Amino acid sequence: MTSSDPRRAAKAVLSALPVIMRTVGRSMREGGGDVSPQQHRILSMLSRKPRTLSEIARIQGVRPATATTMVTTLEHRGLVRRDVDPDDRRRVVVSMTQVGHTAFDAAQEVAERALAELLAPLGLEELASLAEGSEAVRRLGSSESAARL
Questions:
Q1: Cβ atoms within 10 A of the Cβ of 136, count?
Q2: CB burial class (10 A; 0-12, 13-18, 19+) of residue 60?
Q3: What is the CATH number of domain 6-148?
Q4: Is the distance from CB of 73 to CB of 100 less than 8 angstroms?
Q5: What is the percent of the chain with per-residue pLDDT over 90, rounded to a whole number?
Q6: Residues 46-102: pLDDT tens digits?
Q7: The dihedral formed by the CA atoms of 19, 41, 12 and 114, expressed in degrees to the nearest 10
Q8: Within its chain, how far is the Cα of 131 from the centroid?
Q9: Sign of the C-alpha dihedral computed for residues 115, 44, 141 and 69 taken in this order
Q10: d(CA 142, CA 148)
Q11: Ramachandran region of residue 43, left (φ > 0), alpha (ψ -120 to 50) or beta?
């Protein structure tokens, strides 16, 4: 595959995603504490900065009512809190609590360990290529998310 073939790269990434998501999901169910993959995605987003419910819904690709339900579940578990935005009292900002940071870090560690086990048979060059490609996709995703906010 050449770098000038984005369609082929897209196909390769899409075919790998189910393997990655199954590995991460299974590791979280079996040893990641009480954080589901969906909750992990929200906590990951909040680990970078607090967000409004609208931002959470948009980034997660869900309806605002669904985002509210997901955040309410996390709030009842003490993983996030809602605060009135000091700049606009009509808005609510969701942020992670210390308990949420601890749960996120534990789930992240479990997921990383499971993926490392999956990737262990690869050679050094393959691992380096995978890391570089993943970082490039992450950068693209960060740029896209920033453009949407």
A1: 11
A2: middle
A3: 1.10.10.10
A4: no
A5: 48
A6: 999 999 999 999 999 999 999 999 999 999 999 999 999 888 888 899 999 999 999
A7: -40
A8: 17
A9: positive
A10: 10
A11: alpha
Q: For residue 47, what are its two tokens? A: 């680990």
SS3 52: strand
Closest listed residue to residue 108, CA positions, set 55, 3, 33:
33
Report in angstroms the alpha-carbon separations of 23 from 15, 19, 110, 122. Answer: 14, 6, 10, 16
pTM, full prediction: 0.78
Q: Encoding tokens for residue 136? A: 């490039």
Q: Give residue 142's identity as a one-letter amino acid code.
A: S
